[in-house]
Amino acid sequence: MVKLVQKNDTPQKADRELPLASLLPNLITVGAICAGLTAIRFAFQDNFVGAVYLILLACILDGLDGRVARYMKSESQLGAELDSLADFANFGVAPALVIYAWALQDLKRAGWIAVLFFAICCVMRLARFNADSKSETDDNGEYFTGVPAPAGAMLVLLPMFLSFLWPNEVQSYAGLIALYMAGVGVLLVSRIPTYSFKTTTVRRRRIIYILLGFAVLVAMLLTYPWSSLVALDLAYFGVIIWSYFKHKRTQKAAA
Fold first, then answer.
1. In which band, very low, low, confident or very high, does the pLDDT at 251 lie, cut at 50, 70 and 90?
2. Of 119, 131, 153, 175, which sits 20 to 30 A from 211 (CA to CA)?
3. Backbone phi, then psi, for 209, in 5-degree steps?
4. DSSP code of 201?
């Protein structure tokens, strides 16, 4: 009797060796997720300053992982999916839960609705971004559609930045904080064109001024962190308004 051996038609990937350094972008992303999740733990232990610092750290790591992957030419589908999941955890879930633990628990149902609304807006914004990035478009990358998730996380934390400057003055306005959180969520899923700064160029003779300005910004963030973050949030709201009208003028000129 002849015994038939069934062969697997799907070829398996060879278990080839990879340089350990090629894992660095994914390690940065995992570190960002750890920072975001630990921020939630800190918030429910009433360490709100530490929680905010960890979300800021997650933002910095989020900005590094993609650039490191491109520099090392180690982009992968796994890294792209991991980065998207990290964005939801760090910028959709963590800030919302930190704010809930800080000011919204007394609102009970209304506070939790605001948390869910913001988190769902964030995940919808990320899903739309992933879908758009995988389709063929003529977008030159000058504008984001809506506010990007990391910027949304920084904007939604504005009431906490203000409260660190003026303790016991902001936290009592829980209803307004919940409405503000929902408003930032709307900005995330909106179609408002938001300037991305990806196509911004600078003349060589002005590079020194850019570097000096960046040094002053870092010094301000280290010396007066909450005042500087409030100023950056307000400036970003100004960028959103400017982007909208600039994009509208460009469309009219092209018509």
1. confident
2. 153
3. -70, -35
4. -
